[in-house]
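Structure tokens please, single chain.
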Amino acid sequence: MASPVRRRTVREATAADAGAIREIYGGGDVEEFALRVVDRATAPGTTHYIAESEGQVVAAFALTALGRLRPEGKSRLILHEIKLRPNIRGTGVAEEIFDWLATSLGVGTDRELLALTPLGARPSAFDAFGLSESHQVFRWPVGDGGEPR
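Here you go.
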């Protein structure tokens, strides 16, 4: 007998999720996570989300809305890495998040998604959803004390 398909719930993160988000990241300050989740001024256009399974937070990610960048173009979202609890990797959580992005936010029809990953990483969910390399990202590091290098 096949086991039932477990669906995760994806929702906007709240300050109450900060402890669970910290666990997923494996460090950081809970108060900072709580502020970051609710403070829209820190990263305008960015919304933090979590995926839950059976009442447990199993993944965290953030989306930044860019709007339309060129005439006649689709609006864009930047997906900031999906962080997963180590014990649920390979269980389809990332795929369910991509499915949620398509069905709930119109990614792939009304919106274009740009997904950030660490150098050399290519999550299997990217292939399953047809994501292809399209841009290179460069960063301008900030020195100690907030001064540009």
